[in-house]
Design goal:
A 5-stranded parallel beta sheet has the order 3-2-1-4-5, with helices on both faces. The chain is an alpha/beta fold and 160 residues long. It is globular. It is built from 6 helices and 5 strands. Bound molecules: 4'-phosphopantetheine. The site of 4'-phosphopantetheine has 9 residues, from β1.
Length: 160
């Protein structure tokens, strides 16, 4: 059986923290599909196409990783791709409440879908897309937090 996992997210934009979790997931599974969600409650800085393209570029070197956008429910995307595992990163206690609720909801929708969590290493525990967006909007240096393609896209968005 091919073990396929989905790593879903808004990826607005993808950060080194996301990439770390994707790499760890890829080392555990045969194939990882990074699912870039269109239907997210968040107002995004980057369009779905931009978020997907940046995630693709940032994970290009990873042999068993693909990037795809999806609309609608995560459980439907997981089923449609023949996967049964969702892998997410967990940074701190603050993530837990939300992920706990999401997991409960998703298992109501599809009892057989498994969500597994990988703990972020300490160096990425503070890192989030929102902190990256804020830093970039204030023209701070984001080069330690995101890959060069993302840093370029951010500086284009926040050009003075
Ligand atoms: O990176 P994020 O913003 O924490 O990712 C959240 C995401 C995209 C994983 C979540 O919003 C999601 O699964 N969206 C797809 C729609 C869905 O299935 N929602 C849950 C049931 S309402």
């Amino acid at each position: 059986m091919t073990r396929i996992a989905i790593t879903p997210g808004t990826f607005d934009p993808i950060t080194y923290g996301h990439i770390d979790i994707i790499k760890r997931a890829a080392s555990l599974m045969d194939k990882v599909i990074v699912g870039v969600a269109e239907s997210t409650p968040k107002n995004t800085l980057f369009t779905l196409e931009e978020r997907t393209e940046l995630a693709r570029e940032a994970t290009r070197g990873l042999a068993n990783v693909e990037v795809e956008s999806f609309d609608g429910l995560l459980v439907d995307f997981v089923r449609a791709r023949g996967a049964n595992t969702v892998i997410k990163g967990l940074r701190a206690i603050t993530d837990f409440e939300y992920e706990f609720q999401m997991n409960a909801l998703n298992s109501q929708l599809d009892y057989d879908m498994e969500t597994a969590f990988i703990m972020s290493p300490p160096k990425y525990m503070y890192l989030s897309s929102s902190i990256v967006r804020e830093l970039a909007s204030l023209h701070g240096d984001v080069s330690d937090l995101v890959p060069p393609c993302v840093a370029e896209a951010l500086s284009a968005k926040f050009q003075r």
